[in-house]
Structures are given as C-alpha cells and as structure tokens.
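User: I'm preparing a small set of examples for a lab meeting where we compare how different chains pack in three dimensions. I only have the primary sequence for this one, and I'd like the structure in token form so I can line it up with the others. Please keep the answer compact; I'll paste it straight into my notes.
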Amino acid sequence: MQEFDQIEALWASHTVDVKISSDEMLRQAKKEVSNMRTKSLLNIGGMVLSLLIVASLWLFNFESSTTHIGITILVVAIAVYTVILYNDYRIIAKSDFTINPSEFISQLKLYQLNRHRLYNQLYWFYAVALSLGTTLYFFELLTHLQLWAQILFVGLSFGWMIFCSTLVRKAVIKKDKERIALLIEKFERISGQFKEQQ
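Assistant: Understood. Below is the structure token output for the 198-residue chain.
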C-alpha cells in the first residue's frame, strides 16, 4: 500500500506543461459551440415533432372534455418550452467570437444563466403541466381498463416522471453546467491571448 502511495505522490508531482496555440484552442472551442448549436437545433426539432404528435391526438374522437383539456395543456406546455429553447438557441447562434470576443463571451454567459433557469425553475412548470395534461388526457382512457391495469399505468407514469425529475435532470444539469463553464473559460483564455499578442 505504501508503494501505491509513493507512486500516486510521484504522479501528482509530475506535471506536463502542454502548450496549445491560440489558433488551435479557438478551433476546438468553435467546434464545441457548433456542437452545442447542433444539439440545440435537434432539441428544438424533437420538441416540434412532439408538438405535432400530441396535437394530432385531436384527430381522434374523444367523448370527455377532460381529454381535450389535457391535450390543450400538453400542447401549450410543449409550445412554450419550444419557444424558450429557440430563444436560447438564438443567443448562441447570432454572435461570432472572431467578430466581437467580449460580446460573444457575455452572450455565452447569458446562455449559461438561461440554461440554469430552464433546468431549475421552468422545468417544474413543464413537469407539472405535462403531468396534469397527461392525467387529464388518460382520464377517459383509464376508465376502460381494469383496476390493476389502471394502478400499473399510473404507478409506471409517476415512477418515470420521478426518475426523469431526479436522476436524469441532475445528470443533464451537471454535464451542461460543466460544458458551458469550460467553454466560457476557453474563450476568456483565448481572448486574453489575443490581447497579449496585440
């Protein structure tokens, strides 16, 4: 065990100073921003597709008004969340680091703040709206099922929502926060290197 501690101490004391040119760092950072933009567009596309699928439920003939109210709540919640995602996408899509570095960094910080708000405050509005809409939508359908199937369906639905609201949400928040913070740090370092060269 003592040998392992010595190896670990030696490894910790051994640092390698890797110099990356500002051009290489800028290229990597731009690629990461491009990936963020692509993921944002895919999220928006997925939300629009979800909106169309949920709205298409109105094509079926439902007897209960609660079903129509549930579909309306789902459509409104998805539409609002889609608009929020689109506005966040516009923040990172409209500015370029090479044109105005300080404006780009401030836009990236605004994007980071908006994402934090999205995952912490607006997420609960979205989760409650989806839960309420889903409950009202399935109210009519559940009456046609046996009691054990109703209990199973409701239990699985709530279990899935709790799983997404806790474990999945926390993992996404952590990954997103680290990625954006690292990106801001890279662009600030690149900006500092450009100022030193001038």
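A couple of notes for your slides: The chain has five helices and no strands. The mean pLDDT is 80.

User: Perfect, thanks.
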